[in-house]
Structure prediction request, 536 residues.
Amino acid sequence: MMWYEENNGDSQIAVASRIRLDRNFRDYRFPERMEKEERSSLTDDLMRRLSGTDFGDGRSFRSIRLDNISRPEREALAERMLIGKSCLEHSEGGGLYLSRDEAVSITVNSVSHIRLQISRSGMDFRSLWGAIDRLDDKVAGFYPYAFDEKFGYRTTYPTNVGTGMKAFLVLHLPLLDSVEKFPEIMDEMGRYGLRLTPAFGKNREQCGNLYVLMNRKTLGVSEHDIMDIMENVAGQLISQEKSMRENSVKHHRLHTEDLCYKAYGTLRYARLMPWKTAMTLLSKLRLGQEEGVISFERYCCIYELMTGIQRYSLEERYHKSYESEEELDHARAEYLKEKLPRLKEDGGDSEET
Amino acid sequence: MLCEKCNTREATVLIREIINGNATERHLCGQCAQENGIGALFDADSAFGRLLSGILGKSLTGTARQEDEADDITCPCCGMTYGEFVKESRFGCSECYDTFGLLIQDNIKKLQGSDRHVGKHPKNFTPIRAAVPHEAERQMSAREELEILSERQREAILEEDYEEAAALRDRIRAIREKLEGGL
Prediction:
């Protein structure tokens, strides 16, 4: 089972949470300043140490050398947020230690010597922190970390210095997104040292109402401060979205149902599906699923579909490279047809508890 | 001088920008600077390199001559110069923090809103100070620390920051007790 399928994650406005820690070792130059051979042999050494470590969570892992896989394969990993964009250009000598459920990804020698990341469906920073904290303690035993009491963890970029921690929360906000003041709300996040941006690196029109909330500050705030403020602000966004939804579903139920069924029909029967259209319709479907307006005959994770319809994920799945937009849109339509389960005819009401 | 934006609080921050050769200056209070100028710096992770170069060297600090001098400061471990560091906006190795630390700490504070780490320490981390020094040195360093803390306490009282002053008083007391206890 993949991480996003746990927890019945599709029933919530908070789609997924993720914590990332950047760590460098004291006695090695940072990856970018390393000679090729040095970098490569440190990667081998760290990958060996990682596979010899029992992280105590029962997960099994695989080791990937980033320069042994193709550019499109790396792009697909980046689309699933398992490696950073910087690994696309500077993959030489880098490695990835990835759990089978893709919840834990450890990037070796990319931006930092070690970048730890853990993901989970829903909003659950405390358990994520518990897990990544334990992982971090194990890795700290490999070599002494670059750390001092003033600046904390000496990261490659000054934007991560201090805790070296970035927390991310993916939120599905279709109703808030439709409010005229939403851009102001996004700007407002700066006041709390946070940032709210469209997910998947696309613009607002193309993100399927999925947004990522993350912390900007990493120095002078503890890991728990960061989680507190994230939970606090996310809680407010979620409760606003929720109250708008209640109102909309209560007073315009037929209208909401109509939107969901139309979205489903198009997603299932279209032959060409551009990215933007797919994201917009999947967002409606997810809203319907979250609010119990529609339900599927078997489990369907819309977040997985939203991730899966990206170019390189499709190319990886069908072992093809798409030259034209039409080919790509066709593959996207085929993928959705294949993945979308049938709807229960009478809507989801009877199934809701 | 009052803050240009809110016109209520005292302006404490000067933001000087040079865009296409035209210099502009804005006098803001801490809060407005946080909300506007400095806050915006966080906004562009993607264009971060450029922005950081802006904060670190070219538009906010010093004269051109001083910059040139600082540009040549080189990290003995990885060979990165301050000029390269500003241009690439990233450190080359752990020692770069020691080499460029003094030059950048104010800018890191501007960037992060703080200049002091308060979170997790690595497991088994031992501060450099705590490495067992010679008996006389240890006495000396504790005395030095006392002097520094007393100075900070005096400053805190002058600034009417009594909370800080009380915290410092407790630390001073603890060190004195340790010294007298013959540790």
Q: What stands out?
A: The longest strand of chain A covers residues 14-23. The radius of gyration of chain A is 21 Å.
